[in-house]
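Hi W., the glutamic acid complex you wanted:
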Amino acid sequence: MTIVTRFAPSPTGRLHVGNIRTALHNWMLARKSDGRFLLRIDDTDAERSREDYVDAIRADLAWLGIEPNGEERQSNRLAKYDAAFEGLRNAGRVYPCYETQQELELKRKIRLGRGLPPIYDRGALDLSEQDQAAKEAEGIAPHWRFKLDHDEQIAWQDGVRGPQRFDPAQLSDPVIRRADGSWLYMLPSAVDDLDMGVTDVLRGEDHVSNTAVQIQMFTALIAAQYPAQQTPRFAHEALLVGKEGKLSKRLGSLGCDAFRERGIEPAAIVALLARLGTSLPVEPIADRAALIDSFDLSTFGRAPAKFDEAELERVNTALVHEMEFAEVADRLPEGIDEAGWHAIRPNLSHVCEAAEWWRLVTGPIEQREFSEEDRAYLAEAAKLLEWGDDPWRALTARLKEATGRKGKPLFLPLRQALTGMDHGPDMSELLPLIGEERARSRLESPARG
Ligand code: GLU
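Structure:
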């Protein structure tokens, strides 16, 4: 059976690191078994959904390299939900309710006051057809609830959490449709999962109680309309929290734009999020096939996954040091070639810093004040400079012999004169890039004063 997973964002905002992680894991789960990964835009909420967010979701996934095998939109599928609703209604699994928000709130408080769980009391089930007609005559349109079967215990084997059990009598019958006919999340999602042949639903643990309710919906929908389909498998991953272990507001607004601005590579986000919260080590792995190969729900822990921005930076730096020229060429300053990239790469945390380092080659550089002694030393260096295969090695060897200097006094003034800095790329790689003419002039300039 082909594995089918889906990522189902509501386009009411930008993706944040938590959604990105869910998308990534669903993509990896599908890719691991050559399955299909669908992007499903959950846009039944016409008022809050926005087209620019839909575009941004697509663009963010493309930037991350999380390519869907197909895309669906709930707003194009409303007829399916109507049909499913009618099927459930005929089967006696949905019922109209007329309570106002205030009435429901009051009922909730009363139940809490009596020490009862604050679930819906199913008051609407006691209404006769005349009662319902009277409400509608008053102009009150009903909202609709799905009727849980209290005799059917809910259980599933969760891919992360293990065996799960829920007593339906302890759950509220969920509202699935508003009085204006619009849909809440629960039913359209179950209809789509069946209709699209989704085999695995992998999402955050904030959806566990939705799953409990949806399991009965799946069973009812299969019986009424989808006899050839099966209830998907479920897995709920622990939530992502900040480094301090708290659900942080910051994480909720941290998305691809912020990462891009900070020069974080998509590969770093993928490498970190692929393994965060699992028993596998977070490593700077650029090879997605290797990450996918090692992806395994059984390695996921139950404790919240801690997202640490410093860890992301570390992974990013390590990946940048391994990146090939071809991968970054279009983002490098003009003139920098493969040798230039290789010389500079070990000094970068972010590719965008290449420009700063490349200025050491092209200049202008700012030299420090040198001591009298060093000025003489550098003038000597300018004289001994000879261009060949490895000018740095040749120069330092000749200077060592001529001046008796070694170690830091031998190397540091040269680096300082040639680059204006105390540290930086390997000089034997850098000097050929600086070139003979520029090198000679930089060595001569301190003596000129
Ligand atoms: N649109 C839902 C959400 O963003 C989808 C949840 C699901 O994966 O079923 O929470």
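The radius of gyration is 32 Å.

W.
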